[in-house]
Amino acid sequence: MNVIQNLLSAVSPQPDGDFVDKLNYCATTIGLVLSSAFITGWSFVGSPIDCWFPAYYKGWWAEYALDYCYVQNTFFVPFSEDKAERSYNWEHLIADKQNTTSLKQTNQIGYYQWVPFILALQAILFYFPVVIWRLFYGMAGQNVTSLCNTCTATEGNEESRKSTISTIAGFISQKRNRNLVVKQLSGFQNRANGSAVLTSYLFMKILFLINVLLQFFLLKRMLGVDSYFWGAEVTADLWAGNEWPETGNFPRVTMCEYEVRNLDNIHKHSVQCVLMINMFNEKIFVALWWWLCFLAVVTLSNTFYWFWRVSGTSVSKNFIRPYVEDIDPKVKNNRGKLQQFVSEFLSPDTVFLLRLIELNNGKTPVVELIRDMWRRFNTAVPPPYSAPPLLVKDAAPLLKNFQDETEM
Fold first, then answer.
1. pTM for the whole structure
2. Minimal CA–CA distance to 35: which of 99, 93, 120, 110?
3. Where is this protein localized, as stated in its record (predicted)?
4. What confidence tier does 393 reach under pLDDT thresholds 50, 70, 90?
5. Alpha helix positions (H), 46-157
6. Nearest by Cα to 356 from 170, 200, 180, 129
7. Which of 85-89, 243-247, 379-383 shows the lowest mean pLDDT across its residues?
8. Residue span of the structural domain in which 115 resides
9. Residue 221 lies inside a defined structural domain of this protein
């Protein structure tokens, strides 16, 4: 139980992504872990498989057969199949051999003993993208989780809050604004500068999308079904009142064949088994299939949406403009100043982090952060904003003052 609690606490939602990210790595992972734990507990506490044995089976013999049928695969034979009645009739063993072999190959049930591991593997795959994301933004020197948590903690006294906001604003904008004057001297703007965190986040989005699509392939192979739309087919059968005896979907009653060597002879035995665990497997996997459909649509839409949000400076400017206009109404008459603020002072990572802070902490800390950055921008780059690049000798005092300020 402690292991499960530790796992659930490890996948708790963190303020380093949006709602769709939390659906993938938190909600889905927790659901899969709980389902895996339930099936595992039922396998140990309950009876995942019971078999009907003839009267001449002794206690140890029945025990051996039961264990064998659990670890090996069973196969489903519809009750309308006449051959099933003679599958354990030794007089017709040779005649039924070919038919039974065909049934074993086409209707084999080989997943019930692996369900806890399948669900655990799926949980790992859903959590893997966010691990990569956190590893990458840690390597980039931006602890996004701590950053958003710090913004939440700024609701203290006025002086402490302003100091914290100023520190955060300087930290998330330092990679771009330290080189601002140098860019003006050369007249060159590196558009790719300061986008490591953003690129890592988009990479995580792609991993989430690939993973949710991969889950359909994984379930198809693990469950041995013929179609990727098996979840809809099972749901349609249940809605129409067609239960497992007719459809063979997650059958509760299966057949098990095993061989016993006795000196020079090999005796083949067939028994009928009840897979009680399939009552739960059906509900879990059908619900999971529909959840994956929902998650695939949401993740695909969200991924395209984020790529559009970071597609260019104009989109970033539309995000920043309302905040700056509230802070400095005069900027409405000076679009060049706003353009320079977004394109040169704020890096793509800075705008992205501001978006995450808005998603997780609201607009209040974003207003204060942009206000502090706007002040730094006006200090570093005084008007006129449409003037040509400064000469090196004219920019030296400005560069020194700006570096002194950012080091404070």
1. 0.80
2. 120
3. Cell junction, Gap junction; Cell membrane
4. very low
5. 59-71, 93-106, 115-139, 144-152
6. 200
7. 85-89
8. 2-124+244-306
9. no
